[in-house]
Write a structure and sequence with these properties.
Number of strands: 11
Shape: globular
Strand content: over 45%
Structural class: mainly beta
Radius of gyration: 13 Å
Largest sheet: 7 strands, mixed
Helix content: under 10%
Order of helices and strands: EEEEEEEEEEE
Number of helices: 0
Distance between the termini: 40 Å
């Protein structure tokens, strides 16, 4: 079973940056796609970044030019760099990967943006 562990969340002020990490328990060889989702209280889960292997990243307008998804194959980590954070970015962030056609999720890491 593949396990994903997110980290890097926390409480920050508006305008700050955070980098979320998603450590995968096995090699990312065979990765078809990676993504980050967020879930705000009382709202449905929504995608904030997705990238297919060999393809470009896709972001919703709400985070475009502020968030960047990437990965480090040597460390088996998927990242989400978040810049210029806004209060509306407050949510639990989940990592998702498609590895050999199977989807795996992490347990989430909480991000709170507040002054």
């Amino acid at each position: 079973q593949v396990q994903l562990v997110e980290s890097g969340g926390g409480l920050v002020q508006p305008g700050a940056s955070l980098r979320l990490s998603c450590t995968v328990s096995r090699s990312l060889f065979g990765l078809i796609a990676m993504a980050w989702y967020l879930q705000s209280p009382g709202k449905e889960c929504e995608m904030v970044a997705v990238r297919a292997s060999g393809g470009g990243a896709i972001y919703p307008d709400s985070v475009k030019c502020r968030f960047t998804i990437s990965r480090d194959n040597t460390k088996n980590i998927v990242y989400l760099q978040m810049n210029n954070l806004k209060p509306e970015d407050t949510a639990v962030y989940y990592c998702n990967i498609n590895l050999y056609g199977e989807h795996f999720w992490g347990q989430g890491t909480k991000v709170t943006v507040s002054s």
